[in-house]
Automatic annotation (TrEMBL):
GO molecular function, one term: acyltransferase activity, transferring groups other than amino-acyl groups
UniProt key word Transferase: yes
Domain N-acetyltransferase positions: 18-151
UniProtKB keywords: Transferase
Stated name of the protein: Acetyltransferase (GNAT) family protein
Superkingdom to which the source organism belongs: Bacteria
Organism from which the protein derives: Virgibacillus salinus
Amino acid sequence: MVTLMLMNSGEFQIYLKSAVESYAKEKVLSNNWNEEESISKAREEYEKLLPKGETTENNFLYSILNEGQTIGAVWLEQKNNENGFIRDIRILEKYQGLGYGKEAMNQIEMMGKKLGLRKIGLHVFGHNKVARGLYEKLGYQTTNVMMIKEI
């Protein structure tokens, strides 16, 4: 069974390094940033959004555990009293495709309810069809679509 546990500072530092690299890669794949600037821009965004790291107010960074083993991470931001936003969710590659993402999403929703949230939003890159499919199956609705074409 999947559970969520708040990250300590050591776990946060490991997460942060991986998250910055992954976010930079996604922004390059989405044609938002060029590769040369991607890491520094990603680092800047994370520093702006999490100025106090894992203790930044209204941000909850969890390790995703299965039977005590860390299998991923999730970052839930409480935007206001009723709305939350999943800033990041990641399941380690060797655990993907085993249903842990769905279980983690259910745990996130339970955490959101405990915080008093009524809605949780998220962003998914358009090229991430697997994640989009999961979120749609869980009842998340598309609210915006941005498109781009190179000319």
